[in-house]
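User: My instructor asked us to take a sequence, write out its structure as tokens, and then describe one feature of it. I'm not sure where to start. Here is the sequence I was given:
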Amino acid sequence: MNATLFYSTFVIYAVATILYLCFLVKPKDQLGSAARWSLYLGFLLHLGFTANRYLEAGHTPITNLHEALSFFSLSVVAVFILCERRYKVSILGSFVVPLALIILAVSAAFSSVIPPLNPALKSRWLVVHTVMAFLGYAAFAISFGTSIMYLIQSHFLKKRRLGSLFQKLPPLDILDEISYRCLTWGFPLLTFAIISGAIWAETAWGTYWSWDPKETWSLITWFIYAALLHGRLTTGWRGRKAAMLSIFGFVIMLFTFLGVNLFLPGLHSYK
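Assistant: Let's start with the prediction itself. The structure tokens for your sequence are:
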């Protein structure tokens, strides 16, 4: 059942990705609607997979890389759906939905076997810490997508080549607004995830902070996004510089989430 739901989700996300990319090439309402409803179906299947995994495991399925990457993909799609409904910018799906598909594809590279739960993970903080972290990551993923679109539009304006793609993408101020709003949601979620993680660490290992690689890189990620938001709020930092820092922050966040687990073993390592 798990495998059927997982691969069905993957196939529907792949269809949604193709439709969103076709919508980017030829933005017709029918294509946008088909892409949107395909994504909704994939999201429901993904929710079904996650719920079924929860019933089989007996705990929140975010305890190994297969589960964590799948939940990250689910979170990206959920936050994107909210943004699409709020801002009516379907073209954003052409940049975000492929990312969700890639994340889900990477999750398939890791074992789907449900392992015995590590004693340190048997805590009520598991749900609070991880869900807040992944929702924050998902918000940063949307900001990443809008920042790429911003740089593309900015490049067209700078070169004065207002071709067909320029006409299809939203204006710079709309992209900047979406990116900023995602940051204002993602940063508090990341902050709360770090604080709850510290409380959890104290109950599990007897210390709030041990400078474990995951903790260190989480703090680096936090400082990058804190600097970005501080610049925006105090000096009106906008435009290309903000977009580039948002992209850089997302790359560092990906390393914090995935790279640290694979290359820097520590207390938070899991596969």
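For the description part of your assignment, you could build on this observation: The mean pLDDT is 87. Try explaining in your own words what that tells you about the chain.
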